[in-house]
Amino acid sequence: xxxxxxxxxxxxxxxxxxxxxxxxxxxxxxxxxxxxxxxxxxxxxxxxxxxxxxxxxxxxxxxxxxxxxxxxxxxxxxxxxxxxxxxxxxxxxxxxxxxxxxxxxxxxxxxxxxxxxxxxxxxxxxxxxxxxxxxxxxxxxxxxxxxxxxxxxxxxxxxxxxxxxxxxxxxxxxxxxxxxxxxxxxxxxxxxxxxxxxxxxxxxxxxxxxxxxxxxxxxxxxxxxxxxxxxxxxxxxxxxxxxxxxxxxxxxxxxxxxxxxxxxxxxxxxxxxxxxxxxxxxxxxxxxxxxxxxxxxxxxxxx
Length: 303
What we know:
Layout: E1 2-8, H1 16-23, H2 26-29, E2 32-38, H3 42-50, E3 56-59, H4 62-70, E4 76-83, E5 89-92, E6 109-112, H5 118-129, H6 134-137, E7 139-142, H7 146-154, E8 160-163, H8 167-173, E9 177-181, E10 191-196, H9 197-202, H10 204-223, H11 226-233, H12 242-255, H13 266-278, H14 288-291, H15 295-301
Parallel strand pairs: 1-2, 1-3, 6-7, 6-8
Antiparallel strand pairs: 3-10, 4-10, 5-8, 5-9
């Protein structure tokens, strides 16, 4: 068994494929003893990789792409697609009366995610495509946590909160409803492994094994019931009620946030880059092949 350190930025239900691979022994079948460590933030994970303190991490492909857009010599590269649609949800205190369209956010008090930037970039990009100015047309509020925003919606202090699971379930349990799923924006590169080029080259067999393990996990999740997925990840989510885990897995399955294979889709990274450029955080998209190690896909999945 080869031991390696894998960093998670934080614990989240939409990261279920990684926990499924662990729970169902997919890593072990590749001869890998994977030690999970929580970095706390995506920035902290990237810093630890660059310092050589871990073998690889998972996080948004936005991070290596953003860093490479400013420094073409940045050595971080993504590989192995795991979440390729936006897992964030817009939830309100009551169900929408006449359905919902994003332009209905005009004038609303919206609690935006403060923990990570990507869902805000994606939402803002979608609003701009509808001709709205997110800063001028919406009463945007950013600062409290998702847990606090969920409570603020139920208390009538916000009209809408931008949340991931299980916070949307909490709003529903309080009589609220999910108004909009950002997954509907289409393929968007949300989560993948990433590592330094030195690790990708020097530990190629290990990286291929990690990709094969994730392919196994994603294949199982395509046909597994939400209850089975929720049970598999339960050890990592002891503080989340079983009903919320099951409901979250069902919702995410139906939204198709997890791809059929870990092959990295070019259009998903391009859609993410468009949102980042639209939001002014990146001036241009670096070449896809510079951001993503595509060669490892054939090595891992076709060999």
